[in-house]
Amino acid sequence: MASSRVRGATLGSPGDELETARAVRGLFAAITPRYDLLNHVLSLGADILWRREAARALAGTLEQPEALVLDLCCGTGDLAIALSTHGRATVRGADFCHPMLRRAEAKAAARDLRLKFVEADALQLPFADSSLDAVATAFGFRNLANYARGLREIRRVLKPGGSLAILEFSHVRWPLFDLLFRFYFRHVLPKLGDWISGVPGPYRYLRDSVKVFPDQEALAALMKDEGFAEVGYRNLTGGIAALHTGKKSESL
Ligand SMILES: C[S@@+](CC[C@H](N)C(=O)[O-])C[C@H]1O[C@@H](n2cnc3c(N)ncnc32)[C@H](O)[C@@H]1O
After folding, report:
1. Could you read off the pLDDT of 86-104 as tens digits, one per residue?
2. How far apart, in whole angstroms, are the C-alpha atoms of residue 14 and residue 246?
């Protein structure tokens, strides 16, 4: 069951945030070579449309040439690429997994995009207070060892009134579709993931982490608790994913 009381991702010893971060980094390093292929195959290409929706949600900021926008937990850079092709803002990517970042750099260079990527932990970002106009993150937030700390750190680096967009797996809201999707997600996806990635385990973690991740209402409530205003969300593909948005309020 999803719970609003889940503190963050757990991989390894429950409650050990440092160990979870290390294990998450190792897991993504192991699947980097096939990561993009797996994303597109396992979601039947929907991940591309979902990231595009995240970029659209920030259109107002992305149109401003002086704006600075961060793709947090950028992985191989697909959201950063979508953000930079949707406007004229300066886009940065941050991730703590070195092989994912190298791949992101190669993809940006192949498209002639002047994106910069920084190796950094989302819970301790190398950006000054109130320095960013928007932060967007796709399928990364769920992996943080402490969601409230993650939101506090995002709030710290955002300018007052700055925008946050979190694209994450969520909870399907159409009952029949939910049954079908659960079967796929629990039984088919982990096997396909193991097979295509050639690494046993990561896609079982994906299944388990989505199961315990706060649902739409719980994540929206957490965003409000952590000082975000104008909080809302939109279900994508019946709630397989949800796009959460909010703005840094002037005061907590
Ligand atoms: C599922 S991938 C998503 C990648 C990309 N955003 C996308 O849309 O495909 C999750 C990414 O989050 C990164 N990540 C997880 N926890 C992190 C943390 N605490 N700090 C920085 N990056 C983190 C992982 O290294 C991984 O690249």
Report:
1. 999 999 999 999 999 999 9
2. 30
